[in-house]
Specification:
Layout: E1 2-3, E2 10-11, E3 58-64, E4 70-74, E5 78-82, E6 94-95, H1 101-104, E7 111-116, E8 119-124, E9 131-133, E10 136-137, E11 144-146, E12 151-154, E13 157-163
Parallel strand pairs: 5-6
Antiparallel strand pairs: 1-2, 3-4, 3-13, 5-7, 7-8, 8-11, 9-10, 9-12, 12-13
C-alpha cells in the first residue's frame, strides 16, 4: 500500500495518482515541500503598509512584504494559496512560486483565504511548515478572521492583508 501524503488515503501498490484526491504518488519525493525552521522574524527590511485596496473590484490585496508585490483578490470569494510543482495534478488558485515559495517552505496547497460578506477568513490546510497570523502559529484546518493590516506567514513567506473597507 502507498499512503498519500496529501490526504492519507491508502492506495494499492503501483498506483501513480491517489484515487481519493488525485495527488501524484510515484516520484513524489521530488515534490515534497522543503522543510524549514519556522522562527518568523519580528520585522524585515520591507516596509509594512496599511494603504487602501487597489485594483478594480478588489475586496482585498495580498502585499508580499519581501518583494513589495501586491496581488489583488477580485471576482471570486475564495482562493487557495500555495505553489505549483511540475507533475502535480492539483494546483492552487494563487501560485506563490515566483516569490521564492519553495525556499520559504510554502506547501503546494498551503492555505485558503475567503470572504463571507464583510468578514475575511484564513485557514491553513495542514501545510508542512504551518501558517502564522501576526507571528502566532495557527492550528491547521481552523478558520481565523483577518483584519486590515494583519500579517500572515505561509512558512516564512510574509504577506500583509489589506482589506477593502466598506
Amino acid at each position: 500500500m502507498i499512503i498519500c501524503s496529501n490526504c492519507k488515503h491508502a492506495n494499492v501498490t503501483g498506483t501513480m495518482f491517489c484515487v481519493e484526491c488525485g495527488a501524484q504518488l510515484i516520484g513524489k519525493d521530488t515534490l515534497v515541500t522543503q522543510s524549514i525552521g519556522t522562527d518568523i522574524p519580528e520585522k524585515t527590511g520591507a516596509r509594512e503598509v496599511t494603504e487602501a485596496v487597489e485594483g478594480e473590484n478588489a475586496w482585498a490585496n495580498l502585499h508580499l512584504l519581501e518583494t513589495g508585490q501586491v496581488l489583488p483578490l477580485t471576482v471570486r470569494n475564495e482562493f487557495t494559496m500555495g505553489r505549483i510543482s511540475e507533475g502535480q495534478p492539483i494546483m492552487p488558485d494563487i501560485d506563490l512560486s515566483p516569490y521564492q515559495a519553495y525556499a520559504a517552505g510554502v506547501s503546494r496547497l498551503h492555505a485558503v483565504i475567503k470572504r463571507f460578506g464583510l468578514q475575511i477568513i484564513f485557514m491553513d490546510l495542514g501545510s508542512a511548515n504551518g501558517s502564522f497570523l501576526n507571528n502566532a502559529r495557527l492550528e491547521p484546518n481552523t478558520e481565523n478572521t483577518l483584519k486590515h493590516g494583519d500579517v500572515i506567514s505561509l512558512g516564512k513567506l510574509r504577506i500583509q492583508v489589506l482589506i477593502e473597507k466598506k
